[in-house]
From TrEMBL:
This is Methionine aminopeptidase. PROSITE patterns: MAP_1. Belongs to the peptidase M24A family. Methionine aminopeptidase type 1 subfamily. It comes from Sphingobium fluviale. The lineage of its organism: Bacteria, Pseudomonadati, Pseudomonadota, Alphaproteobacteria, Sphingomonadales. A divalent metal cation 2 binds at residues 122, 185, 218, 249. The keyword Metal-binding applies.
Amino acid sequence: MMDYMTMTADSPPTRSTAIKLYDESGFAGMRRAGRLAAEILDALVPHVVPGVTTGELDDVVRRMSIDGGGVPATMGYRGYQHSCCTSINNVICHGIPGDRKLLEGDIVNIDVTPLVDGWHGDSSRMYIAGEAPIKARRLVEVTYECLMLGIEQAKPGNHLGDIGHAIQKHAEKHRYGVVRDFCGHGLGRVFHDSPEVVHVGTPGSGPELKPGMFFTIEPMINIGKPGVRMMEDGWTAVTRDRTLSAQFEHSIGITETGCEIFTASPKGLHCPPYG
Ligand code: MF3
Ligand code: CO
Ligand code: CO
């Protein structure tokens, strides 16, 4: 049994196991936070080139978050010190920005979470430094398709399992592995809230989707097997079999008829190549 709780503008921002259902004031807050996330990801495009360091990209994200009236929610989150995550090649997620220079053909996920007026916009995209081999480009493209096929299932009356199923079916058709160890999540005034959004599943299983639910969908897809290995830094997750991994993430809200993508790109920069 899954229960739901109705949120209003003055409900407290606390984590809960119940799934929160937000009103129009929540949609307004998420629209602003999501838009800033998308603008940051748009603005990063010309910066993601061979020779740039992930630390320099982190500086761009921090400056843009603050200039846009927000603050990166990752700074100080469980001891994390950076403004975004930069996950290169075989890194699945939570890569830590630093001195690593991007090399020609690297694929990199940049994941940003600006906190604006108490609301979290959480989104990530893949970028390609220079030109990458077809094998890498194909993974990136199919991973984006997985995200959008999941989003197509995000409507009232469907269940979370319908989203996971659509993603898994598409990834496995291409013989890719869907990561199980990390999930999408509810969000709003809380960064990581209920429900857990698993990227595999059975149609009709899991909680029913209702208008006012806010959550992310963020499939991580590996060319090889789904297995994860954690690095000694306690954050960086890499593919156990060292194959390439890709990820895209949107924050969405369930509406009466489907869903609203809070983090859609204003410039139409959805998936590489960006121009
Ligand atoms: N943005 C990530 C997500 O999609 C979370 C990053 S938490 C961090 O949920 F601490 F690693 F930055
Ligand atoms: Co997320
Ligand atoms: Co994220």
